[in-house]
Amino acid sequence: MLQEMAPFSYNHTNTQGMWYVLIGIPGLEDSHPWISIPICSMFVLAVIGNSFLIFLIVTERSLHEPMYFFLSMLASADVLLSTATAPKMLAIFWFQSMDISFGSCVSQMFFIHFIFATESAILLAMAFDRYVAICHPLRYTTILTSSATGKIGIAAVVRSFMICLPFIFLVYRLRYCGRNIIPHSYCEHMGIARLACDSIKVNIIYGLTVALLSTGLDIVFIIMSYTMILCTVFQIPSWAARFKALNTCASHICVILMFYAPAFFSFFAHRFGGKTIPHHIHILVANLYVVVPPMLNPIIYGVKTKQFQDRVMSLFSPISTCC
């Protein structure tokens, strides 16, 4: 199939009739059916788990707090990230449905980058929430009012939209002249740009600038927040009180590590480990990245948050009583 489609020749300027071929995980084509099993399972669990988390937050009045509002946004972003990537991924693995139009590819690219930037901003908002709760507990309700929380959520979405929108124009401005095979399971900015005949220096510079000035700054501010949190916590004389304060941050720290660690791996592997790390490892990590954190996030918060446990017990206790 790839050999038949690879020689396709396209008009240099007409992108409407262009089709790409997503080959899945290069080098592991024979293992696609086996790889699809855990990915499909994690995708289903991610959608169900995050949807249930959103349901709990919406229906339980005691969870109508800034921390859980941001958590519901994170869960929504996780559902969108999984559904934007996993169905096409599974279609490749199961049915060899590798072709995708240029417009669909660009749309998928935009949503992936937009959701990633939004999740990074939400994690920063959650870090700010924990900073205010621990360092300024008496002012928590006056600082993080409903209005302020809503504005932070809107700002996270608007910022992500504005910095990711230029990616669409950057790939549409390029000329394409025949190369149509993307060695990946989904479309992303540089994967599309590398198929162009023009110079992609602007694309590379803008991609790096966005990574440094959005995600990079988010990480810096998150580290600053937790540095101030730790300074405040270690001034508490009681060890029990220290542990209780840190325990409220445990779930968020786990989610941060799961979100940024694979992203850093991919970033540095592409730039410094191109010859030492096999390409299929890069793609496999990228595939797992869009299903593993979304699957684990509701589990982590469910295990670490007593309010969720109590709410789940109250929902299922009538069922167990009837049975």
TrEMBL record:
Pfam families: 7tm_4. It is a multi-pass membrane protein. Keywords: Cell membrane, G-protein coupled receptor, Membrane, Olfaction, Receptor, Sensory transduction, Transducer, Transmembrane, Transmembrane helix. The keyword Transmembrane helix applies. Coiled coil: none annotated. It is found in: Cell membrane; Membrane. GO terms for molecular function: G protein-coupled receptor activity; olfactory receptor activity. One of its GO terms (cellular component) is plasma membrane. Residues 49-301 form the G-protein coupled receptors family 1 profile domain. InterPro entries: GPCR_Rhodpsn, GPCR_Rhodpsn_7TM, Olfact_rcpt, OR51/52/56-like. Signal peptide: none annotated. The chain crosses the membrane at residues 35-58, 70-95, 110-132, 152-172, 204-233, 245-269, 281-303. PANTHER family: OLFACTORY RECEPTOR 52Z1P, OLFACTORY RECEPTOR 56B1-RELATED. Belongs to the G-protein coupled receptor 1 family. Putative odorant or sperm cell receptor. Odorant receptor. This is Olfactory receptor. It comes from Nyctereutes procyonoides (Raccoon dog).
